[in-house]
Specification:
The complex is a heterodimer of chains A (about 300) and B (about 160). Chain A is built from 11 helices and 14 strands. Chain A has helices spanning about 15-25, 35-40, 80-85, 90-95, 100-105, 110-115, 120-125, 150-155, 225-235, 265-270, 280-300; strands spanning about 5-10, 25-30, 50-55, 65, 70-75, 130-135, 145-150, 155, 160, 165-175, 180-185, 195-205, 205-215, 220. The chains are: A alpha+beta (about 300), B alpha+beta (about 160).
Chain lengths: ~300, ~160
């Protein structure tokens, strides 16, 4: 039960939603509500005066191929997106988040725009160079406006949105689900836990793309790391081993690992890693080394 | 556009019946079921979406009712443990002692009922992944697993 007196608004269109946000100070958009319901109940500092339920907005519920892309509504539950299986890597990542009954409510937009730092659903979307459709509230006489932009343009550690901007959908290029992919998720305790490290990797021709959650206080993808991984992946044929070394057979100091653009350089390019009660930064480094090797083997 | 504030009367379709309740928009489905409608089967455990004791079915899908606002559910069908009415999964939990203190049992049974409905064929990986949504603090998981297997047998029998 939320102690604060909140209003509940249920618009039928995106325009009505952003207009409601303009009219109600302290309003938040609600789709699955998994975070809002718990945060508002536990934390007096969580300012909530109105919930704008976006579940009735048709374009926030699309799950279809149109216009040369796979369009996924922000209000789709993680269970529904994963069950669709149109983007296998996304499905695999989503099935690792929370547990099934939470995923029946937690939405794609909510996972990316929420307060928790993991935002694992962002990984496949960042790797796919997906775009994001939003609607920005109008000001004065200026009407509200939709914007479709590359996700990477507005994802700087988290979604960077204008006040009142509402995420409507994500657009995944149709070739992305066809790319070879790899995904690993490691937790401290059981499978239902926040990730110590979640890795997602794809191979686009000869190029490797890599994204990780849990290793930093935000999801991470970088062109520099992609370039190093691509170089290391390409160099595998020049080594005595015919594929990237497996963690079981070769330590991080092995000659193969130290090859051109080797694993140490890749880890260094990831920057300082997170240290918290779940795991030290050093532990996460070792996990990442193992999972990067495993991922490259999957893609070889 | 629907707008609700203050204390409002809503109609929820619960266990096949229309039930009226005066609620605040901030009231969770769990609290409304228990405190307004007298349906105390859904248990208030963590109220944080972790334990699954408050699980109910919303349009047939298991959800944690502590994370759902009651006002969101006016167009949905809500099923609580009181609405299962001697479902084969309930019978199996009783026969196989799929409970110890019983606090988690309503949530476990509703999740298991949704599981056997969605996946009639047994699959250990699916069963395990599905039932991870619910915690048993008594750690009575062996009995729960046996009950799920027994329920599947009951449902598969001609």
């Amino acid at each position: 039960m939320i102690a604060a007196d909140v209003s509940y608004l249920c618009p039928d269109t995106a325009e009505e939603a952003v207009d409601a946000w303009r009219r109600h100070a302290g309003a938040r958009y609600l789709a699955g509500g998994t975070e809002i319901a718990t945060a508002a109940r536990r934390t007096a500092a969580f300012d909530l005066r109105a919930c704008i339920d976006i579940k009735r907005i048709a374009e926030a519920n699309v799950h279809e191929i149109c216009g040369g892309c796979l369009r996924l509504g922000a209000a789709l539950s993680l269970s529904d997106v994963a069950a669709g299986d149109a983007f296998p890597l996304l499905g695999a990542v989503l099935r690792g988040i929370a547990d099934r009954t939470v995923r029946n409510r937690l939405t794609l937009g909510g996972n990316l725009a929420g307060l928790l730092p993991y935002r694992e659903a962002a990984l496949p979307l960042l790797l796919a160079d997906a775009s994001i459709l939003t609607i920005v509230p109008g000001k004065g006489e200026i009407p509200s406006a939709r914007q479709e932009r590359p996700l990477r343009e507005i994802f700087d550690k988290r979604l960077v949105l204008a006040p009142g901007e509402l995420v409507l959908s994500f657009c995944v290029p149709l070739d992305a689900p066809e790319w070879p992919w790899s995904h690993y998720r490691r937790t401290r305790t059981g499978e239902v836990d926040y990730p110590l490290v979640t890795t997602a990797m794809v191979r686009v021709g000869d190029a490797i793309r890599f994204a990780v959650a849990g290793a930093h206080p935000y999801p991470f993808r970088s062109d520099a790391v992609d370039a190093l991984l691509t170089e290391w992946f390409a160099a595998r044929g020049t080594d005595e081993e015919n594929s990237p070394p497996s963690a079981a057979q070769n330590g991080p100091d092995s000659p193969t690992a130290q090859g051109r653009g080797g694993l140490e350089a890749i880890i260094a390019a990831l920057g300082p890693l997170r240290a918290d009660a779940r795991a030290s930064a050093e532990y996460r480094v070792q996990l990442l080394k193992n999972l990067i090797r495993a991922g490259l083997e999957d893609l070889a | 556009m629907k707008e609700l504030s203050g204390i409002v009367e809503i109609v929820l379709r619960v266990n096949g019946e229309d039930r009226r309740a005066a609620v605040r928009p901030g009231d969770t489905l769990l609290r409304v079921l228990r405190e307004k409608l007298g349906l105390t089967g859904a248990k208030c455990g963590c109220e944080n979406g972790d334990c699954g004791a408050c699980t109910v079915l919303l349009d047939g899908k298991p959800v944690k009712s502590c994370m759902v606002l009651a006002v969101e559910c006016e167009d949905a069908a809500v099923t609580t443990i009181e609405g299962l009415r001697d479902h084969p999964v309930q019978q199996a939990f009783a026969e196989e002692n799929g409970f110890q203190c019983g606090f988690c049992t309503p949530g476990m049974i509703l999740n298991a009922a949704a599981l056997v409905d969605a996946h009639p064929e047994p699959d250990d990986a699916v069963d395990r992944e599905w039932m991870q949504s619910n915690l048993c603090r008594c750690t009575g998981y062996e009995g729960i697993r046996n009950a799920l297997a027994a329920a599947r047998k009951k449902l598969a029998a001609p």
